[in-house]
Amino acid sequence: MTARIDYDAVPEGTALPPLTVPVTRADLVRYAGASGDFNPLHFSDRSARQAGFPSAIAHGMLTMALAGRLVAEWSGDPAAVCDLAVRFARPVPVPDDGVGARLDIRGTVTAKLADRRVRVALDVLCDGVKVLGSAQAVVQLN
């Protein structure tokens, strides 16, 4: 983690450093074990294709957590993330090819709020397609 960010030094429009995160089938297995979500859509290509997906897909909450990682790392303190809200817009297909998928995550400070908090709009894309809609976080700064 980096040093905590000073509220007074962050104007609206501040871009957070972008984050690129690979998501592999091994990540899906680890997340399934941690979350208890063993839905076959997240590990079986056959089940995923039957449901209309090209391959197994990442857990939505895993995708959301990775978006939260961007603001947690930027703020310097994971506990500074007061709120994280998203709309799941598109699935994240994770091919079983040893490479997996890649999430590109960007954030921009859109508002300075009371009590030294900021609102951050998040863009989360997989292969150039937005996978989370209306994604935003509220972060407590120093």
What labels would you give this structure?
142 residues, alpha+beta, Thiol Ester Dehydrase, Chain A, 6-stranded antiparallel beta sheet, 3 helices, 23% helix
Describe the structure.
With 142 residues, the chain is α+β, with helices and mostly antiparallel strands. It has a single domain, classed as Thiol Ester Dehydrase, Chain A, CATH 3.10.129. It is 23% helix and 32% strand. The chain has helices at 25-35, 45-50, 60-75; strands at residues 19-23, 81-88, 101-112, 117-126, 129-130, 132-140. Strands 1, 2, 3, 4, 5 and 6 form a six-stranded antiparallel sheet that branches. Strand 3 and strand 4 (117-126) form a beta hairpin. The longest helix is centred in the middle third of the chain and has 16 residues, at 60-75. The protein is elongated.
Question: Can you describe this structure in just a few lines?
Answer:
With 142 residues, this protein is α+β, with helices and mostly antiparallel strands. The chain has three helices and six strands.
CATH topology name, in short, is Thiol Ester Dehydrase, Chain A
How many angstroms does the end-to-end distance come to? 15 Å
Structural class: alpha+beta
CATH class label? Alpha Beta
Instruction: Based on Cα principal axes, name the global outline.
Output: elongated
How confident is the prediction overall: mean pLDDT? 96
Instruction: Outline the biggest β-sheet.
Output: 6 strands, antiparallel
Poorly predicted sequence stretches spanning 5 or more consecutive residues: none
Percent in helix: 10-25%
Radius of gyration, Cα only, in angstroms?
A: 16 Å
N-to-C SSE series? EHHHEEEEE
The CATH H-level superfamily is Hotdog Thioesterase
What's the total number of strands? 6
* H/I helix tally: 3
In the residues, how many domains can be counted? Answer: 1
- Report the CATH architecture: Roll
Q: Roughly what fraction of the amino acids lie in strands?
A: 25-35%
